[in-house]
Amino acid sequence: MEFSNPIFIWIAVGIVLMLAEIILPGGIVIFLGAACLVVAGALTLGWVEGFVQALTLWFIAAIVLLLAFRQVTQRLVGGDSHVDNTDEEFDLYNQVAVVKAAIGPAQQQGRVEFQGSEWPALGDGSEIPVGARVRVICRDNIALVVEPMTEQA
């Protein structure tokens, strides 16, 4: 067997791509490898001749295999599908932070510690001293808008 034989090259590339599916899971690379094997079969049977026809058949076979069998393999194999909250503002609302640099009065910016890091913070207009616990209302650019926590018994 000659290593420059196009049939051997298409088979080798097909097997390499199909084995690459182990490293690159997703159900796409295996179909590209299967399309290589289709081209190798067509070259063996004499249905195509030359590189341009083989490459054209590979493109067509890859697209047909992807469109025909991708849904089937996704159903069989499954996948990681979990939906997380994409609204960051909602995650911030009503969380507790601690004032690190006094906030206010008026629109004077201070700093709060929130989720392990310090953030610039704006208050509700009143003066909020260092060490006070505040509730996060929303975010304005990179600054958190906070209000002092009221003591509820």
What's the SSE blueprint?
Blueprint (H helix, E strand, L loop, with lengths): L5 H18 L5 H17 L5 H27 L10 H5 L3 E6 L8 E5 L2 E6 L10 E8 L2 E6 L5
Parallel strand pairs: 3-5
Antiparallel strand pairs: 1-2, 1-4, 2-3, 4-5
Helix pairs in contact: 1-2, 2-3
State the order of secondary-structure elements, H for helix, E for strand. Answer: HHHHEEEEE
Distance from first to last alpha carbon: 86 Å
Q: What share of residues are in beta strands?
A: 15-25%
Structural class: alpha+beta
Strand order of the largest sheet: 1-2-3-5-4
Number of strands: 5
Give the overall form: rod-shaped
> Over the alpha carbons, how many angstroms does the gyration radius reach?
31 Å
User: Please, what is the average pLDDT?
Assistant: 84
Q: Could you describe the largest sheet, including whether it forms a barrel? A: 5 strands, mixed, barrel
- Approximately how much helix is present in the residues? 40-55%
pLDDT < 50 stretches? none
Q: How many DSSP H or I helices?
A: 4
Model description:
The chain has four helices and five strands. The model has no long low-confidence stretch (mean pLDDT 84). The radius of gyration is 31 Å and the shape is rod-shaped. A hairpin with a 2-residue loop joins β2 and β3 (117-122). It is of the alpha+beta class and 153 residues long. Strands 1-2-3-5-4 form a five-stranded mixed barrel. Helix content is 44%, strand content 20%.
Which labels suit this protein?
4 helices, 153 residues, 5 strands, rod-shaped, alpha+beta
Task: Briefly say what this structure is.
It contains 4 helices and 5 strands, in the order H-H-H-H-E-E-E-E-E.
